[in-house]
TrEMBL record:
Residues 133-153 are annotated as: Disordered. The keyword Transmembrane does not apply. It comes from the Eukaryota. This is alpha-galactosidase. InterPro entries: Aldolase_TIM, Alpga-gal_N_sf, Alpha-glycosidase_related, GH, Glyco_hydro_36, Glyco_hydro_36_C, Glyco_hydro_36_N, Glyco_hydro_b. Residues 137-149 have a biased composition (Acidic residues).
Length: 942
């Protein structure tokens, strides 16, 4: 029988008897359960399986079977295993047996055996009470129709949401005739929702080949450290990195959590308890559904809500955690007990435990300033690996993304399972992976606990950032397609969806600080003749800004440079048919500024200390202060309201040091890093609300804050201050693992390159910038008429190809690797709309010449095997190698076609299975093709 899983996509299923949750993505399943001890046990995350498969058998991986008779000796709860083995287990007899054993063997029990047995007995009694309560007031849920011998799925009318059961919350079930009759424990009336299907009672334990006696023969070898958990506390036997750490007023850090209940909501459950607005993904009722699993520390009453959202059209889940410290907790005597403050020292947004896997690889994005987000691969072995930032931003050095796979490195681009994590946060983060002595792996993702201590007084709550979990069974390529589609549809502001950003010319590398009205206008006049659509005025326009030492914070135009004000310049630019954009750095202040002289305590450092770091001659404004946020809002509001400004580049050119909030109480200094980031988000949210027509591009010394949090407020991020094409190939290639091509800020710059002094052709610089937002960092006044004409051809071609490149599917066809001697990149974007003429755009770049060696044929991907395509080479090379001397010589403009002529017609089968021959000759050489749809069918073969 072939099961069609598609009806379950985006649905949340709950089976009450085993307390199992199933979250179905488009082709994936994420499953966990609340065991009888109240722990959340992770079961499975991977490719979809039918809902009638009983996943409780996965719990057996936590124990081993022994045929030596004897009592159970595990200090963990074992009722889940007992329930699985036999529904007819005699609880009372077992309790008496354990009680006798405890009384007789207290002296000989090692490692607190008596206490462990007593704890197990208590849990069995609680389970018995729960089963008794479920059996009371039984009602038939629905009729079982097995006349056709096939699974019968029936949905029940939806109640109002949220829904909640007194014991286990809303439930859903699935009926299958071969699994036997409905179990009595499911007969209790429950709340159902449309799209939340019921699961039938699981088969009796005898179908597993086990009888009641087998229960007594199970001897688990060790404790919680081996169990796959969904959310892990500290100090109760799990020695892996915990999901959270709390410190109570008495100094205790023990906080075991117990399952309390759950709620199911249609659509995306929005954040309510974040201290300030945090970025989060969107999702309507037709797109996704949300699950809230409620946990509590029964002793202290501290509450944890684990929030999950599963998307229907993608294999993606978001996770976050809300911690509540109730105002009061009722004791057993029903009297109110006074609450005490609690401190959070660690709170991960997501924890996932993986069973032992062979050949596990960890993929991260790391680098440095001007060299960001290189794809790194390393084998995970026993021990702990951490990728983190402590700099106040997500940083140049590391990115809040990681993925694991068991596929060998030479294959994992297109093959095998990948599990990926992307944190929607722009501040200090941590991605930690630990492989234990058992071979199991834990991944934690969240705010970096090294710089985080959050006080939680009674009645208060804290909500973590969101973490995106993506599963792919088609390697990194499938993972990237999911991230790209997810962020374009549900994260980047919707008003920018399917738009093409204007081709802009930024004044920075053309003029640096030496800007004024006449110079900018002169540059704009040249730009208007070669396809540029926007002029962006970069640094140097405000205060008394002649270099990097002054005026940050004083966001008023320099009247020496702009005597008629910025509004006059904007009007002149608009008169040329060009749009206008501007650069700001709102988070910083120079000591040489009016703002600092007036408010010296508005900086992030301990006022009164003489020593401090002035990175790039500037200090960081304290965005934890409301007056700072309001000052920045007022200045940006005035700037954008006074002129027709349609683009804002938000920069941040240094990291945070001496982080101390002068307006924050001493015991809350551990909150400063997070409160700072919340303040930045607040200003960005204001700009989005007040000026929706302004396209914002964020920047942090280049690519130092390229993350999903920033994408919530802007459609694009400057990828790196390094614009050299050889460097940019690796930077943009790595960035594409998690972030859409439409979000990667990439420009053509001058040669020799300002950062590396390397040379490259204008054609190659165009092709690299094409796979991004595309713009110019050139002084067009210095280009020759020939170069300006060539540039005009490139800008025109960009406008033609941009919809396919920015909004199509992106494929990494080639990349240099330590496992290969191929020193080339190849990128491809395909258009999914069959009505469009352009089906794909392909570019190939040679990074290092190997004389006498040939590149392999380039196999394309993402095409229709049965369709014909017109393969057209664009901007061919005009040089060739002299066969007599080996020298590269110009051909006088005569094109050298890769395919022998400008275009050929080939089938998708040939292009993907055979490939395209590519001949590149020197470092930085490149070639590009456009595939047009050929409407004639492929001729039938004889």
């Amino acid at each position: 029988m072939v099961y069609d899983i598609s009806p379950y996509a985006g649905k949340i299923l709950f089976e009450e008897r085993s307390s199992t949750f199933r979250l179905y993505g488009r082709n994936s399943l994420y499953a966990f359960r609340a065991d009888e001890g109240g722990n959340l046990e992770h079961l499975y995350w991977g490719k979809s399986i039918p809902p009638q498969d009983d996943l409780r058998y996965l719990s057996f991986s936590n124990v081993q079977l022994s045929f030596d008779p004897g009592p159970l000796t595990y200090f963990e709860d074992i009722t889940a295993i007992q329930d699985l083995v036999s529904e007819q287990l005699d609880h009372e007899n077992l309790l008496r047996e354990w009680d006798n054993a405890r009384k007789q063997n207290v002296a000989t029990c090692m490692f607190g055996e008596a206490a462990r047995r007593e704890n197990a007995a208590w849990r069995l009694m609680k389970m018995q009470e729960l089963k008794t309560s479920r059996a009371e007031g039984e009602e038939e849920l629905r009729e079982i129709d097995d006349s056709d011998g096939e699974p019968n799925i029936q949905e029940v009318p939806a109640p109002n949401y949220p829904i909640k059961s007194p014991h286990l919350g809303p439930m859903a079930s699935f009926t299958s005739p071969h699994l036997g009759p409905l179990h009595p424990s499911l007969a209790k009336a429950g709340a159902f929702g449309e799209g939340f299907l019921p699961l039938n009672a699981y088969p009796p334990a005898e179908e597993f080949g086990l009888g009641p006696q087998a229960t007594e023969d199970m001897i688990p070898p060790v404790g919680r450290n081996t169990k796959l958990l969904e959310f892990a506390d500290l100090g109760t036997g799990d020695y892996r990195p915990p999901s959270f750490c709390v410190v109570y007023e008495d100094g205790s850090t023990i906080c075991p959590l117990t399952y309390k209940g759950h709620e199911i909501h249609r659509g995306k459950l929005p954040m309510k308890f974040a201290k300030g607005k945090l970025p989060e993904l969107r999702g309507g009722e037709e797109d996704c559904n949300s699950l809230v699993v409620q946990m509590e520390d029964r002793l202290t009453g501290l509450e944890f809500d684990l929030v999950y959202t599963v998307y229907k059209d993608l294999d993606a889940i978001t996770r976050r955690v809300i911690v509540h410290n109730p105002k009061e907790k009722k004791s057993n005597g029903n009297s109110n007990k006074p609450r005490t403050p609690t401190r959070l020292d660690k709170l991960m947004s997501a924890t996932v435990d993986f069973h032992t896997m062979s050949g596990l690889n960890l993929i991260t994005l790391s680098g440095s300033w001007a060299n960001e987000r290189h794809q790194r691969v390393q084998s995970l072995v026993q021990g702990r690996f951490v990728s983190e930032s402590l700099r106040g931003t997500s940083s140049h050095q590391h990115n809040p993304f990681c993925a694991i796979t068991t596929t060998p490195e030479e294959l994992f681009e297109t093959h095998g399972d990948v599990w990926a994590f992307s944190l929607v946060y722009s501040g200090n983060f941590i991605m930690e992976a630990e492989v234990t002595e058992t071979g199991r792996t834990r991944i934690n993702a969240g705010i970096n606990p090294s710089t985080f201590k959050w006080h939680l007084p009674p009645g208060d709550s804290f909500e973590s950032p969101e973490c995106v979990l993506v599963y792919s069974d088609s390697g990194l390529e499938g993972m990237s397609h999911t991230f790209h589609a997810l962020y374009k549809k549900y994260q980047i502001p919707q008003r920018w969806a399917n738009t093409v950003p204007p081709i802009l010319l930024n004044t920075w590398e053309a003029m640096y600080f030496d800007v004024n009205h006449s110079k900018v206008l002169e540059l704009a006049k040249v730009a208007a003749t070669c396809g540029v659509e926007m002029i962006v005025l970069d640094d140097g326009w405000f205060g008394e800004r002649e270099d990097a030492t002054s005026s940050l914070g004083d966001w008023d135009e320099d009247r020496r440079k702009f005597p008629d004000g910025l509004s006059a310049l904007v009007q002149d630019i608009n008169a040329l048919g060009l749009k206008f954009g501007i650069w700001v750095e709102p988070e910083m202040v120079n000591v040489k500024s009016k703002l600092y002289r007036k408010y010296p305590t508005w900086c992030l450092n301990q006022h009164g200390r003489n020593s401090r770091c002035e990175g790039r001659n500037q200090l960081v404004l304290d965005f934890t202060r409301e007056e700072v946020c309001q000052y920045v809002i007022s200045k940006l509001n005035a700037l954008l309201s006074a002129s027709n400004i349609e683009y804002l580049k938000w920069d941040m050119n240094r990291h945070l040091t001496e982080v101390y909030g002068n307006a924050i109480m001493p015991e809350k200094q551990g909150e400063v890093f997070h409160r700072y980031m919340v303040g930045v988000y607040k200003v960005l949210a204001f700009l989005n609300d007040k000026f929706p027509h302004v396209r914002i591009e964020t920047c942090s010394g280049g690519g130092g804050r390229f993350d999903a949090g920033m994408l919530h407020y802007c459609p694009q991020i400057w990828a790196s201050d390094n614009t050299d094409v050889f460097s940019r190939m690796a930077i943009q290639h790595g960035t594409s693992l998690a972030y859409p091509i439409s979000s990667i800020g990439s420009h053509i710059t001058a040669v020799p390159n300002h950062q590396t002094q390397r040379l490259s052709t204008l054609k190659t610089r165009f092709l690299v910038a094409l796979f991004g937002t595309f713009g110019l960092e050139l002084d067009l006044r210095r280009l020759s008429p020939v170069d300006l004409n060539e540039l005009s051809q490139y800008t025109a071609k960009y406008k033609e190809l941009a919809p396919t490149v920015l909004h199509g599917k992106f494929y990494r066809l080639w990349a240099p690797s330590r496992l290969s001697d191929r020193h080339a990149y190849a990128w491809m974007c395909t258009c999914e709309n069959e009505q469009e003429d352009i089906a794909a755009v392909v570019a190939v770049f040679l990074t290092k010449t190997e004389p006498g060696r040939y590149l392999p044929r380039l196999r394309l991907r993402g095409l229709d095997l049965a369709s014909n395509y017109v393969v057209e080479e664009i901007f061919p090379n005009t040089s060739m190698r002299n066969r007599n001397t080996g020298q590269l010589e110009m051909t006088g403009g005569m094109p050298q076609w890769q395919l022998g002529k400008q275009s050929i017609v080939m089938s998708g089968a040939a292009l993907m299975n055979v490939g395209v021959p590519v001949r590149l000759s020197y470092d930085g050489d490149s070639s590009a093709f456009v595939l047009h749809r050929h409407r004639n069918p492929v001729p039938a073969s004889n």
